Hints:
The protein is 40% helix and 9% strand. The chain is of the alpha/beta class. Helix 1 runs parallel beside helix 9. NADP nicotinamide-adenine-dinucleotide phosphate binds at residues 27, 113, 143-144, 169, 211-217, 220-221, 254, 269, 271-273, 277, 280.
Amino acid sequence: xxxxxxxxxxxxxxxxxxxxxxxxxxxxxxxxxxxxxxxxxxxxxxxxxxxxxxxxxxxxxxxxxxxxxxxxxxxxxxxxxxxxxxxxxxxxxxxxxxxxxxxxxxxxxxxxxxxxxxxxxxxxxxxxxxxxxxxxxxxxxxxxxxxxxxxxxxxxxxxxxxxxxxxxxxxxxxxxxxxxxxxxxxxxxxxxxxxxxxxxxxxxxxxxxxxxxxxxxxxxxxxxxxxxxxxxxxxxxxxxxxxxxxxxxxxxxxxxxxxxxxxxxxxxxxxxxxxxxxxxxxxxxxxxxxxxxxxxxxxxxxxxxxxxxxxxxxxxxxxxxxxxxxxx
Length: 328
Ligand SMILES: NC(=O)c1ccc[n+]([C@@H]2O[C@H](COP(=O)([O-])OP(=O)(O)OC[C@H]3O[C@@H](n4cnc5c(N)ncnc54)[C@H](OP(=O)(O)O)[C@@H]3O)[C@@H](O)[C@H]2O)c1
């Protein structure tokens, strides 16, 4: 929400604190935050990050920039039906716009933000490949895509000699949405992290980045409630265990969620408008949950987080992957 919901002074303070405390990756998108701006188009977040980078000489070398393309409304008010999409011309136009707003030569990770089945996968991966070959994009990732399309794209990328997608970005948290529902703000059919996404990531050594890990603050902010889509029996047990673990360790429920994601090899993406929120999240990043707490947190139902991965890991004596393993 930088540049819209979060003003320049607060955003600069958050970014400064983040890097002062060792933060490296900054995630944005060309469409942030079209829904919060009177123009109906995004770009405010990238522009603000660009101004911050210019105001902090040498900062570009200290941070890594991740941005996304494809989900910018084709015209104000037209999202989600009409978006910039993932054709070759849309990719090049969007990427040029992001570089200009950010004021950077290159981007460390470029995501395709949302599916575009009107563009062929070959056209999309070729356009991305031109950017990686030119050296202006270091890595490519896929957000909100079904696992099978990512794997098909990776096969094409390999056959064309391009860098393969090596990261997935999905909505995920400790509570799981009821089957057949989508969390608020997730309009993408394949937005929530699924068993298949996680399996793909484990098998191919891809990173998983988690968006909306704190359910917009509902774990800890008494003024926010857990959205209805999380109303299901398994989550009653999850909330009980989460509350128990948080009070035993003396941290907040949100901190346990972040530490739990990290313990499962997942990179949570932080949103926040206040320094205390950022500090709490960064403290959670150094929190090591006791093995018994992890076992209890993972004991409800079968989820993308639980078996069979842990079983495979222990039976084979440890499978190494970019996902890490959850050993007890
Ligand atoms: N790929 C995609 O399609 C996609 C979609 C959505 C988001 N994302 C990425 O993921 C990032 C995070 O998403 P998100 O903002 O939805 O994440 P989130 O973790 O669900 O929510 C962040 C919000 O939680 C509240 N919060 C944070 N720490 C708190 C604390 N200690 N106590 C109480 N409340 C707290 C804050 O709300 P208040 O500011 O209201 O206090 C903050 O803005 C985004 O910035 C974006 O980069 C990607």
